[in-house]
């Protein structure tokens, strides 16, 4: 990297910190900190939802898979998300928003205490929080690998530098800072993505999206290749539909921050469209990479995008592309930190430390900032301890994708009126059973059991969790008038009619 590249990167960091400082003035209480007070425009909510859904993992782990296997990574990843979010625009997005508007919910898990009971809420809170801190550690590792590849910065220092910048604006500005930096990062990402696309087109010709497939191995044009089977695809489609419509808690926040349920639906449709189209711009250079930087084997394939950038981009553009990588990770991490702080402050701490319930508004806001700071710090420590290389894809697919289903099923299906008689027994059994199945399969995989493929590791925990939720819920119905009132209130934006006492 040259001087101009470093100027671009450093300037980007200063802009992110500046947004955090500006956003601080918009945050007056925890409602502003966690849900933007329900005042976020639908288009900003939609862009923020999209940006918060992926990170530099795309340019490390997924770039590696695109380099090795071709088209399949778009099919099983972004295509499933785009379709799933489109479905969720009608099923889930408006309901998340109405939880905030009608029930003053500030955390995605806050409604679970009323929907099921407090023990169910606590099981899901602890399981999800532990999963998220490891997931974010993988994001730090991914972006530090990119920084090392482009600029020679050691992984540890890369994590520290990027983590501190993210920590500053997240702690100061809450969800407003997250969304505004998401928008700025979306612009930077667009410039960086098109810069790489145009550079590849200048080398291979503008018709390269059509012509490269004849020069690549035949399997590179297959929708499913390598370990990614139809079973894996179907399981991941269900997982991503649940995950990206609120099972990944930070994405539920984007819907909650919109002004109304109708606005939340528009946000989801915008995000769905972006998921279907924009990853194609980013993946096309990755698919062409074997023709430009051939011969990368094994873990070296994680450096495919780095090697292309160093080979093809002029001074200044490398810095812009690297800033685009940062933008992905910082968008996801800051939003995750915000929602984890919400879950800890609203759902976990009040049951561990009763005094929290008596805190003043100012002290609640201070606690939210302390929690955000702590979560980011712990995830950075785990990332540094991991060493980076090889850690990313394993966490993202083998851990996060495989365990997200069991955690998301009771949370997401609990929003829908069709499952109103499913109670806490089914919910807890679903989470514990699904995670238990994952633990068993993961141990078997570590012991080199050939039958534990990626499809098995991802699909079996999800399937068991779903079967337990539906079968126990059907056999042991737990109807509740309070639950009926809650679910019925989520059907429309209209205020509930006043209930006249007899």
Automatic annotation (TrEMBL):
Keywords: Cell membrane, Ion transport, Membrane, Sodium, Sodium transport, Symport, Transmembrane, Transmembrane helix, Transport
Alphabetical list of Gene3D superfamilies matching this protein: Sodium/glucose cotransporter
Key word Ion transport present: yes
Keyword Flavoprotein tagged: no
Cross-referenced Pfam families: SSF
Catalytic activity: L-proline(in) + Na(+)(in) = L-proline(out) + Na(+)(out)
Membrane-topology annotation of the record: Multi-pass membrane protein
InterPro entries: Na/Glc_symporter_sf, Na/solute_symporter, Na/solute_symporter_CS, Sodium:Solute_Symporter
UniProt subcellular location: Cell membrane
Transmembrane residue ranges: 6-22, 42-62, 74-93, 123-143, 155-177, 186-206, 226-246, 267-288, 317-344, 365-385, 391-413, 425-443, 455-475
Family statement drawn from the similarity comment of this UniProt entry: Belongs to the sodium:solute symporter (SSF) (TC 2.A.21) family.
The protein's name in its UniProt record: Sodium:solute symporter family protein
């Amino acid at each position: 990297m040259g001087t101009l590249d470093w100027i671009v990167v450093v300037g980007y960091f200063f802009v992110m910190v500046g947004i955090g400082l500006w956003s601080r003035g918009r945050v007056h209480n925890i409602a502003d900190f966690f849900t933007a007070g329900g005042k976020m425009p639908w288009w900003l909510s939609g862009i923020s939802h999209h940006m918060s859904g992926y990170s530099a993992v795309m340019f490390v782990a997924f770039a590696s898979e695109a380099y090795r296997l071709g088209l399949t990574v778009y099919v099983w990843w972004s295509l499933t998300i785009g379709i799933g979010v489109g479905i969720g625009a009608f099923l889930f997005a408006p309901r998340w928003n109405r939880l905030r508007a009608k029930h003053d919910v500030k955390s995605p898990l806050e409604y679970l205490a009323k929907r099921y009971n407090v023990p169910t809420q606590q099981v899901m809170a602890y399981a999800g929080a532990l999963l998220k801190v490891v997931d974010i550690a993988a994001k730090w590792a991914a972006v530090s690998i990119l920084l090392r590849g482009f600029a020679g910065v050691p992984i540890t220092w890369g994590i520290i530098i990027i983590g501190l910048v993210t920590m500053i604006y997240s702690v100061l500005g809450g969800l407003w800072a997250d969304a505004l930096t998401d928008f700025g990062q979306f612009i930077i990402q667009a410039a960086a993505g098109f810069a790489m696309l145009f550079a590849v087109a200048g080398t291979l010709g503008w018709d390269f999206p059509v012509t490269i497939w004849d020069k690549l191995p035949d399997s590179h044009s297959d929708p499913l290749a390598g370990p990614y089977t139809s079973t894996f695809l179907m399981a991941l489609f269900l997982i991503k539909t649940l995950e990206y419509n609120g099972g990944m808690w930070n994405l539920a926040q984007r819907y909650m921050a919109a002004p109304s349920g109708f606005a939340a639906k528009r946000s989801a449709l915008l995000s769905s469209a972006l998921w279907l189209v924009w990853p194609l711009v980013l993946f096309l250079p990755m698919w062409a990479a074997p023709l430009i930087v051939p011969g990368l084997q094994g873990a070296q394939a994680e450096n495919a995008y780095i090697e292309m950038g160093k080979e093809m981009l002029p001074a200044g553009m490398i810095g812009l592309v690297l800033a685009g990588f940062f933008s992905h990770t910082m968008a996801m991490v800051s939003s995750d930190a915000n929602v984890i702080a919400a879950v800890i402050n609203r759902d976990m701490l009040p049951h561990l430390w009763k005094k929290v319930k008596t805190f003043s508004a100012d002290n609640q806001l201070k606690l939210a900032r302390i929690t955000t700071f702590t979560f980011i710090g712990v995830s950075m420590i785990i990332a540094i301890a991991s060493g980076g290389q090889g850690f990313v894809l394993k966490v993202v697919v083998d851990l996060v994708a495989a365990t997200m289903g069991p955690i998301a099923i009771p949370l997401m299906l609990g929003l829908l009126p069709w499952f109103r008689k499913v109670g806490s027994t089914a919910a807890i059994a679903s989470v514990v059973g699904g995670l238990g199945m994952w633990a068993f399969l993961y141990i078997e995989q570590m012991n080199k059991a050939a039958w534990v493929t990626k499809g098995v590791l991802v699909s079996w925990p999800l399937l068991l969790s779903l079967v337990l939720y539906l079968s126990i819920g059907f056999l042991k119905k737990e109807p509740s008038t309070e639950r009926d009132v809650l679910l019925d209130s989520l059907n429309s934006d209209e205020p509930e009619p006043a209930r006249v006492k007899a």
